[in-house]
Specification:
Elements: H1 5-17, H2 20-27, H3 31-45, E1 50-51, E2 58-59, H4 61-88, E3 94-99, H5 105-118, E4 123-128, H6 133-139, E5 145-148, E6 157-172, E7 194-197, E8 217-220, H7 223-231, E9 237-240, H8 241-250, E10 253-255, E11 264-273, H9 280-286
Parallel strand pairs: 3-4, 3-5, 7-8
Antiparallel strand pairs: 1-2, 5-11, 6-9, 6-10, 6-11
Helix pairs in contact: 1-2, 1-4, 2-3
Length: about 290
């Protein structure tokens, strides 16, 4: 069997426009040439596509099944042609975005969704990183963009302010056996387990974010697991306020912020490396923030 693309397009034009005459006009062909093309296709297939016993020809059940597959093939070819144009314009087939562990996802995904809706041939790979892992992926060239907090004096980076995230020290109600006061010190927590996040950076010098080096530790890989550990009364720790706001309101968690155990507000930014030349899609994504 040797069915050509042109034969499939001929069948599609006839059925899409309702008649051989209309299909022929769209294809810029004569009426007899379209009839001949369809009959040749039927001969090649070994079955009739059309039932011609009535006043108007209609698809046979075999014709219905064959045309369904024909449409899928033509749609795939159109998609392939569009993708080829995308690549011919040197538009990147994929972009990597490093997202930090305290970056709020709902706010982050909105611009990414808008980009994806308009650029379906560029795949977005989301790299979820902890602590210095996000900036390390960017500096290594493994991420085109990062959304996390940075040292804003780092002249290797350009950035746009994105949002602010407050990180607060919390514990489950009843976890601490010492009375809470504004004079609570880290030394008062030395015997209480602290939950901390595992750093996904491999080569950058780690920064100590709120870690009490005299406490026992439980190390976890993400903020949601950390929250559950704290809720279960297994440890205390610092959490992004947006993740624990409801639990603080209902009393499942309490703030243990004091004069000595501080909260901190981080500026979350969208950052990229300073470069002279950028890809078309990388620029388009940057413009969404």
């Amino acid at each position: 069997m040797n069915i050509t693309l042109q034969q499939m397009k001929t069948l599609d034009a006839v059925l899409k426009h309702g008649s051989i005459q209309a299909g022929a006009k769209i294809l810029n062909k004569t009426h007899p040439s379209v009839i001949t093309a369809i009959k040749k296709m039927e001969a090649e297939l070994g079955f009739n596509l059309f039932d011609r016993s009535g006043y108007r020809s209609t698809l046979t059940k075999e014709g219905v099944a064959f045309y369904k597959t024909t449409r899928e093939i033509l749609n795939s070819i159109n998609e392939l042609a569009a993708q080829a144009q995308h690549l011919a314009r040197h538009e990147e087939p994929e972009l990597n975005i490093a997202i930090g562990d305290i970056t709020p996802l709902p706010e982050t995904l909105k611009p990414l969704r808008l980009f994806s809706e308009n650029n379906r041939f560029t795949r977005l790979n989301l790299l979820f990183e902890n602590l210095e892992g996000a900036i390390e992926r960017l500096l290594e060239g493994k991420a085109d963009l990062m959304i996390h907090h940075i040292n804003k004096t780092d002249n290797r980076l350009e950035y746009k302010d994105f949002c602010n995230v407050k990180v607060v020290p919390v514990a489950a109600t009843g976890f601490l056996k010492v009375p809470f006061s504004q004079n609570l010190k880290p030394s008062n927590l030395n015997k209480y387990t602290q939950c901390i996040i595992r750093n996904t950076a491999c080569s950058l010098e780690p920064v100590n974010y709120f870690v009490n080096n005299h406490s026992p530790h439980i190390t976890v890989g993400d903020q949601h697991t950390k929250k559950e550990i704290i809720l279960q009364g297994m440890a205390w720790g610092h959490m992004p306020l947006f993740l624990v706001e409801d639990e603080l309101k209902t009393g499942r968690l309490i703030s243990i912020e004091s004069k000595y155990i501080k909260s901190h507000t981080f500026d979350i930014v969208v950052a990229r490396l300073h470069k002279n030349i950028r890809g078309i899609m990388a620029e388009a994504l940057w413009s969404k923030f």
